[in-house]
Amino acid sequence: MLYRNLSFFLIEALKNLKGNFYLHLTIILIISISFFIFGTLLIFDTNIDRALSSISKDLSLVVFLKDDVASGSEDFLKLKKFLLNYPAVKVVHYTSRLDAYLDFKKNFKGYEKVVEEIEDNPFPSSFEVRIKENYSNKKELADLISILSKWKSVEGLSLSKDWVNHFFSFISLIRMVIWLLVALIGTGLILIIYNGIKLTIHSKGSQIEIMKLVGGTNWFIRGQFIFEGIIEGLLGSGMSLLVLYLAYNLMFQKITGAFSFIFPQQAFSFFSVNDTLLLIGSGTILGILGGVLSTTKYLKN
Amino acid sequence: MLYRNLSFFLIEALKNLKGNFYLHLTIILIISISFFIFGTLLIFDTNIDRALSSISKDLSLVVFLKDDVASGSEDFLKLKKFLLNYPAVKVVHYTSRLDAYLDFKKNFKGYEKVVEEIEDNPFPSSFEVRIKENYSNKKELADLISILSKWKSVEGLSLSKDWVNHFFSFISLIRMVIWLLVALIGTGLILIIYNGIKLTIHSKGSQIEIMKLVGGTNWFIRGQFIFEGIIEGLLGSGMSLLVLYLAYNLMFQKITGAFSFIFPQQAFSFFSVNDTLLLIGSGTILGILGGVLSTTKYLKN
Amino acid sequence: MIQLLRVDKVYEGGRWALKDINLHIKKEEFVFITGPSGAGKTTILKLIYLGDRATNGQILLFGRNLAILKRNSIPFLRRNMGVVFQDFKLLSDKTVFDNVAFALRILGTRKVELKTRVLETLKLVGLEKRSNEIASMLSGGEQQRVCIARAVVNEPALVLADEPTGNLDLDNANQVMDIFRALNLKGTTVVIATHNREMIEKTGKRTIILDSGNMAGENLPRQGDAL
Amino acid sequence: MIQLLRVDKVYEGGRWALKDINLHIKKEEFVFITGPSGAGKTTILKLIYLGDRATNGQILLFGRNLAILKRNSIPFLRRNMGVVFQDFKLLSDKTVFDNVAFALRILGTRKVELKTRVLETLKLVGLEKRSNEIASMLSGGEQQRVCIARAVVNEPALVLADEPTGNLDLDNANQVMDIFRALNLKGTTVVIATHNREMIEKTGKRTIILDSGNMAGENLPRQGDAL
Ligand SMILES: Nc1ncnc2c1ncn2[C@@H]1O[C@H](COP(=O)(O)OP(=O)(O)OP(=O)(O)O)[C@@H](O)[C@H]1O
Ligand SMILES: Nc1ncnc2c1ncn2[C@@H]1O[C@H](COP(=O)(O)OP(=O)(O)OP(=O)(O)O)[C@@H](O)[C@H]1O
Ligand SMILES: [Mg+2]
Ligand SMILES: [Mg+2]
């Protein structure tokens, strides 16, 4: 009897979906678009969050060398060795004057002419020294800066957190807007879904009424509406994930390009399989809830 | 007769709104949320766009001075005069060694200790030279860099477009996501609204049918549904603007704070009166269209 | 007034609801259409009030050929008819008054006159005290009478009534028939589809008998009666 | 079987639909309820099938007091009744078959048996060939017969029929009455609300007469007939 009922429910649900096509298309679209928006914002936010948590640890110190310090010279090697052995230092990366010049040319598209017309290469060679996370607030770092600022081959120092700082406050603005959007859209969606259900009630009300008058129990009547809800929820969340995935693949080049330029150590990624299942699961639950709630009012008396 | 009809339509529209409360609340909410999303994205995008167009012109050159050049010395004054008179230069701003030190302390919260334990102030004094827009690609700029790099009080140069560059690619990523969202939400909304209308047709179908059978002309029947649409559109767009405005005011401090930190010359602003009217106008038009379209099918035969 | 010439009606799905119907109803005539359930009574009326189009044949109404009538002329043609539908077709969330008034509102009747006429007509069907109640809350017979009031409120040239007394007791049914007869005497053409033999016999008017979509016979009006 | 003790029904808005009704319908009885439009016939049936609750008084059905019946017992009580509604209440976008089958599906009847019984019942009302048509596409009388088929398909202990022949011609009406009589002979209690005096007289069963919500009289069954 259970199997007979379940298959009857499924068939009736499919018939209802077909019969009331526009109602259900609308519900599916609403679910789908909600999930799409949430999905996009989530993907975006997760990626930024991950990137930020990696970048914020990368405090780095740029040590500019005097122009007369050659890359193989004794002083150069001594400095390099000192840096490599210093406890607070994680990685050391050397940029020659030529590299700096080429970097500049690459980063300042449109200014190549300016640079080419400069007779001397104005860019100093430098060591970029990445500091270990747990040292960033310690005396060793202060000592390092002290020592380096007195080192005779060193022309200057720069703690390269400048743009990152501006960047952080900008990102926090963006994330604030994102969460503002999520909160307000979320509230709105709950209202829409709640009212959409009331709407469904109105459109299904007379049918439910009749089924009750003929002696259907609450759960027997609910059966088909719950199946309807499940189908809607699955289709809605599934569709949004599909569109999201297609969009992600379509834009992959551009997004990952832009992203990796800013966060070189961080790949821009889609949802994990777990997250995907979670989203589809919550779509289904939304659908079941919709089916139960939408019938509850008419089943009350 | 026209006046009699119009007031009848308005009254019937209001009765319909009351009678079919949840249907209309849903429609209003859908319109409202759509406008809200568009509004937020538009405000955000317009502001960024405006800020970018101002910032992208601000190429600036930082001239670091040797530690032994005092701020009143002859060399200092000579360099300052030279910079101020140079044709490509727009504004010159001096930062003393102490200023640089304090700036650093301010910008690197959490590193104060590091800095305090450094015995010598390691930060050079500098002139920040803002370049006139139309000079940014010209020989004068190259010459300036050439001259400065040979100037004896000058320790080094830096074209400060570094963080701005990263920043730009990040912003372009954000804007790409925004427009991707807008495009997809837009498509989705058109579908939702179209189907919402079909849904309205179903819920109003029998009423329209009956009115026709009793001899109502198409426009007589449409009258009240158009009024319904207008009311929905006005309420929908009005509500979204109100929420948007409240959110804007509530977050004003934080948003403008973060914004002005990044774009100091640019105030973060809400829609202009014109834009507001435009949005409300398009809400109304959407409503009218909804009313006309939703009745068209049943009026066909 | 109404002329059907070799009219067929085949519904989607292939059901022949009417086959080769020829019928002439004159101005100011009072005609019954009868026949068993599913004979095609409602279908004939539907074709006349343009609720559907004939599959084959010609229908002339008020001197116009319905087959070639333009869509936007339909409302104006309908304003000359009052129709009592078998399933009432009331605006279920509107009051009794608004339901009846609708037929006058589309004609642009002035407020005061509209009110008087609606209440007068409701009195005829015994519902004058119910004018502010919502239509769907009335009993079956009461709803049927609202529908009749709506059909006659604008004193149309033609009244089509489909089973107008199916939900009424004898007294109310007689009252309704009196209304139709009175209208008929004032010049309105009346066509009533019904299975109620008693009513037909008592009234003694011309009666067209349908069976499974075919014309199965015709009883002429009793002597001494008008057309 | 059914007992109404001093039952009042006041609808929202203050309309007294029933006043101080006392009524006892025995098991296997066949009873008519009659009275003019708006008398309260439909309301009495509604109270019995629990479509609404009485304002005052007690109703006992199958030995249970409806005033204190729990909500989730209602469906099981209803499965012992078949109801023919005055406005049919068919699932309008489902087929004739599905409409009738629904009353069996909720009982968990097996597929094969379900099909046989639905088709048999449709045959009784002369619609066996229409089982795959959508209910809303049928004529008024055909819809009424579907509704009757649904009410009797599970051979319930009690049949309530509200104006079950209002849209039917004489032949079909007689056929329907035959079905009710046959069920009654097999032990089903039958209560029919109708304004059709002819039918009441011909059948000669006990008749309760309502007027404006009051019990206005009662005709006892003709001699020689069963209860
Ligand atoms: N919309 C429709 N689609 C398909 N078939 C239809 C439709 N309307 C009516 N029919 C069929 O056409 C035939 C004639 O129907 P009609 O409603 O004219 O009968 P009727 O004489 O009014 O019967 P009743 O006395 O039962 O109201 C019936 O067999 C009916 O099933
Ligand atoms: N839901 C309701 N709300 C308010 N009043 C109602 C409601 N249902 C019925 N009534 C009123 O109660 C009274 C009795 O109605 P009921 O439907 O029982 O009459 P009836 O005897 O079935 O009449 P008919 O022969 O016309 O079907 C009527 O005056 C009716 O208007
Ligand atoms: Mg009919
Ligand atoms: Mg009734």
UniProtKB/TrEMBL annotation, chains A, B:
Localization of this protein: Cell membrane
- Tell me what this protein is called: Cell division protein FtsX
Q: Which domain of life is it from?
A: Bacteria
Q: Which PANTHER family match?
A: CELL DIVISION PROTEIN FTSX
Species, as recorded: Candidatus Schekmanbacteria bacterium GWA2_38_11
- Predominant cellular place of this UniProt entry's protein: membrane
Under InterPro entries, the record lists:
ABC3_permease_C, FtsX, FtsX_ECD
Q: Where is the ABC3 transporter permease C-terminal domain?
A: 181-300
Q: Which GO terms describe its biological process?
A: cell division
Q: Where is the FtsX extracellular domain?
A: 61-151
Membrane topology, record value = Multi-pass membrane protein
Keyword annotations of the record: Cell cycle, Cell division, Cell membrane, Membrane, Transmembrane, Transmembrane helix
GO cellular component annotations of the record: plasma membrane
Q: Which family does it belong to?
A: Belongs to the ABC-4 integral membrane protein family. FtsX subfamily.
From TrEMBL, chains C, D:
One GO MF term attached to the UniProt entry: ATP binding
The record's section on Pfam families has:
ABC_tran
For this UniProt record, the keywords arranged alphabetically read as follows: ATP-binding, Cell cycle, Cell division, Cell membrane, Membrane, Nucleotide-binding
The places in or outside the cell where this protein is found are: Cell membrane
- Keyword Cell membrane included in the entry's annotation: yes
Biological processes, Gene Ontology terms: cell division
Which protein family is it in? Belongs to the ABC transporter superfamily.
Q: Subunit structure, per the record?
A: Homodimer. Forms a membrane-associated complex with FtsX.
The entry's protein name is: Cell division ATP-binding protein FtsE
Q: Which organism is it from?
A: Candidatus Schekmanbacteria bacterium GWA2_38_11
